[in-house]
Amino acid sequence: MGFFNWAAPLVRRFGDRFTTDDTTAIAGWLRPAVEPDGHLLDVGGGAGQLAALLADALNAHVTVLDPTAQMLSHVPAGDRVTALHGSAEAIPLPDDAFDAIVVTDAFHHFRDQDAAVAEFIRVVRGGGLVLVLDLDPRPLAMRLIRWGEILLGEPGTFMTPEQMCAFMAARGIEGECEPLRKADYRFLGRVEKRSET
Fold this sequence. Notes:
- It is a single chain.
- By secondary structure, this protein is α/β, with parallel strands linked by helices.
- It has a single domain (2-191), classed as Rossmann fold (3-Layer(aba) Sandwich), CATH 3.40.50.150.
- 36% of the residues lie in helices and 25% in strands.
- The chain is built from 7 helices and 7 strands; from the N terminus they run ααβαβαββαβααββ.
- It has helices spanning 2-14, 20-30, 49-58, 69-72, 113-123, 140-151, 161-170; strands at residues 39-43, 61-66, 81-85, 98-104, 124-135, 173-179, 184-191.
- The protein has a 7-stranded mixed sheet, with helices on both faces.
- α2 (20-30) crosses α3 (49-58).
- The longest helix is centred in the N-terminal third of the chain and has 13 residues, at 2-14.
């Protein structure tokens, strides 16, 4: 995470990549699970730019979880946005605490993707949603980015959309992958409802 320690101010200043149209689309995908005053977890949410936009768009409470304290220090203050230091592989929150999870451009950074998905299933209520926005590693530009990340000490564990759908399904989150623009794609899946005991 050394790269993100020194890059945090740059990410906060120049990382506002989400447009109004992006926010509207993402909120629309999440809205079936996140009602007004609902709870959304932004895993690897960095400086919280998207979290602040989604809190407004969904009229919901959004928790930004990130392992880099320097990133979290830039999360915009607000009644509906909370910053929490922690990792995707060991989320320091109770079971069934969230209606949905969003992960944008971060899944390939997780050092233990299996553990992260197990945590998603644990902290999202049955019937809740998991939305992952990531990048397809097949285009040449993405192969170069992957190698750049590896040189910076990041895992660079990108998956194709087909790999992501199969990976999630094998771990209990059935969903669909859809290409967006350029190398971007989304995985949107539902956490299976738990049986009452």
